[in-house]
Amino acid sequence: MEFKLEAHRIVSISLGKIYSARGQRGGLKLHKNLLVSLVLRSARQVYLSEPCCPPEPPAAPRALPEEPPPPCAAAAAWAPGEPPPPPDEAPRGGPRRPGADCESARARRCCCCGCCCCEAGGGGAAPPLPCCSRKRGAGERGQAGSPVKKPRREAEEPPPPPPGEQEDMETGNVANLISIFGSSFSGLLGKDPPGRRRAPRDGGEAAAAAPAEAAAEPGQICCDEPVLRTLNPWSTAIVAF
Amino acid sequence: MTGQKTLQNILADIISTVEFNHTGELLATGDKGGRVVIFQREQESKQQPQRRGEYNVYSTFQSHEPEFDYLKSLEIEEKINKIRWLPQHNAACFLLSTNDKTVKLWKVSERDKRPEGYNLKDEDGRLRDPSMITTLRVPVLRPMDLMVEATPRRVFANAHTYHINSISVNSDYETYMSADDLRINLWNFEITNQSFNIVDIKPANMEELTEVITAAEFHPHHCNTFVYSSSKGTIRLCDMRASALCDRHAKFFEEPEDPSNRSFFSEIISSISDVKFSHSGRYVMTRDYLTVKVWDLNMENRPMETYQVHDYLRSKLCSLYENDCIFDKFECVWNGSDSVIMTGSYNNFFRMFDRNTKRDVTLEASRENSKPRAILKPRKVCVGGKRRKDEISVDSLDFSKKILHTAWHPSENIIAVAATNNLYIFQDKVN
C-alpha cells in the first residue's frame, strides 16, 4: 500500500519534471529527461504491480501539501490549461482541450497555481510558457493523445530538413503523456476500469478515441489501469528527443 | 527591475568549471555567464616569501555569448561547461572552452612591449602625410604595462546536435574530442569546418534510447585510446585504431548492481557524472551520485576501489529527486601522484580519499573557515544517534551549497574548489 502511494507520488513528481523541462533555457536536457522517464517507468511498474488498489484517500498524495485536498486537484495541477495544448486539438495558445474534463472551475483555479507549483519544489523553474514554441506538423494531429500508439516524433518544421542541414533534436510530444495523465489521476485510484481498451496493436484510432470518449463522459475515469498498462511513458518522453 | 538585474549578475558568476594548466602556474575558471577568468600564480620572491604561491587574476574574457537557434527556437546557454588547457610551447597559452554547442580555442598572450617610432603613423595612430616624411627610422620596442590579451583563434561549431558535456585534448596535441549526449567527435585543431564522428550511440528509433554518454576523456599517453562513461554506470574504453567508428568498445567496465540497494532511483544514482584517467594512465576514476570508484584498466568486471562520498544520502533519495539535487553532476580529480582523490559534496563540503592509507577527510569551503593561512578543520556529518558538538546532522546540510567542480595542481598540493560563485584555493602549509 505504501509502495503504491509512494509510486503514485513519484509518478506525479516525474511528470512535473518532464513538463517543466519544456520551458527551460538551453533546451531540453536529454540526460535528465531520460533519467526522469526511467524513474517514471519504475514507479509506474510498481504501482501497477501492487496487488490492491487503496480506497480513495481523503487527501491524495501530491507533490505539495498546500494544494486543496480533493484528489482531482492533484491531477488538475497537471491538466494542460495554460500550458501547451496537446497537438491534436487546441490550436496554439488556445483553450484547453475538451477532453480535460476534470477541470471544473475549482480545478481551473488549482491549475493556474498548479502549473507553477507542480514542480514539486524542484528548483523554481519558470512556469511553462503558454504557447508551445514549436510548430506541430499536420501529420501529428490525428495521432496525438494516444496512450497506446507510440507517439510520432514532433517535427520542428513539417518538411524534413534538407540533406546536409543540421540535425533536428526531435523535441516532441511530451504533451501526450501529460494529457493522458493530466485529465484525472482518479483513474489510478479507481477500482474497476469502465471497459478494457483495445490491444495496443490497434494503432492510433483506438487511442485517439480514448480521450474523446472521456470527453463525452465528464467525471468518467479518463486514465484507467489498462491504459496505464499499455502506455509506455518512458518511450513517450524519450521520443521528445 | 533592479533586483532582477542583480540576481542575473549573481547567477552569471556561478562557476561551472575549474582547471589548472599543465604546469599549475595558471588556473582557469569558467562561469555560467560565459566568462573565463584565469588566475596566475605569484612568482617566488625573496622580498615577500609568504606570498609565494598565491593566485591572482591574470586575464578575464567573455568566451561565449548566449545564442539563439532560430530554426529550433532554442536558446543556447553561454555557460562554460568545460575548459581544457593545451600544453604550452611558447610564451602564449592556449585553452579550449566549450558551452553546450560550440568549442573555442583561445590564445592568451602577454604584451609588455610596444613598438614606437613608426614612419607612416604618429604616436596617436594618425597617418602621416608621406610627402612630409624626410627621414626613415626603425621602430623600436619599448616597455609598457603588462597587458594580457585573449583572442579566439578557432571556433568549432555546428557539430553537435545534443549538449556537449566533455572535451579532451589528445596526447598528440594535434587533435581533441568533444562529446555530447549521443555522439563523440574528433577534431583537428587546425580544421574547424570538419570533424570526425568516432562514437554514435543514437538509436535509429529514439524511443529505444536507454543510455546517454555522460563524460569522455583521452588516455594521457596513448593517443589512440579514450574512455567514455554512460548514464547506466558503465565505462567503455575504445581504440581508434580498431575502426573509424568506435561504436564497439575494446573494454567494457561495469559493476553488477547490488540487489539489496535497489530503489526507484537506482538508475539515477548509478549514472556516472565524471570520468578521469589517472596521471599514470593505469586507472580510471568515475564519480556517480554517492560514490567514487577507481577502476583498473585490466579488470572490467568490477572497480578496484569504491569510496563512499556521502552514503547518508541514500535514505533521502526521494527528497533529493524532488528538489533535483539527485541530478547534480559532481566531478572528481586525482592529485599529481595519483595517491589521493578528491570530490565535492553538499554544504560546501569536499572529500579527499587517500588511496594508500585508506583514510579520508571531509573539509568545508566557506568564508568563515577560510581566513588566509588558517588551517582547515576536518568536518563530520552525524548520521544518527547522538550528535557530537562539532558534527553536523544530515538534516542540517545545505543542499544549495554544492561543490561540483574542483581541481588539483598537477604536481603540488594546491587545490581549487568552486563553491557556487566563490573560488577557494587551498595549499599545503609551507614550512
From TrEMBL, chain B:
One GO term in the molecular function aspect is:
protein phosphatase regulator activity
- Matches recorded under PROSITE patterns: PR55_1, PR55_2
Keywords, alphabetical: Repeat, WD repeat
Cell cycle is among the record's keywords? no
Residue spans making up a coiled coil are: none
Q: Which GO terms describe its cellular component?
A: protein phosphatase type 2A complex
Q: Which family does it belong to?
A: Belongs to the phosphatase 2A regulatory subunit B family.
PANTHER family from the UniProt entry: PROTEIN PHOSPHATASE PP2A REGULATORY SUBUNIT B (PTHR11871)
Protein name per the record? Serine/threonine-protein phosphatase 2A 55 kDa regulatory subunit B
Query: What organism is the protein native to?
Result: Dromaius novaehollandiae (Emu)
Report the gene name: PPP2R2B
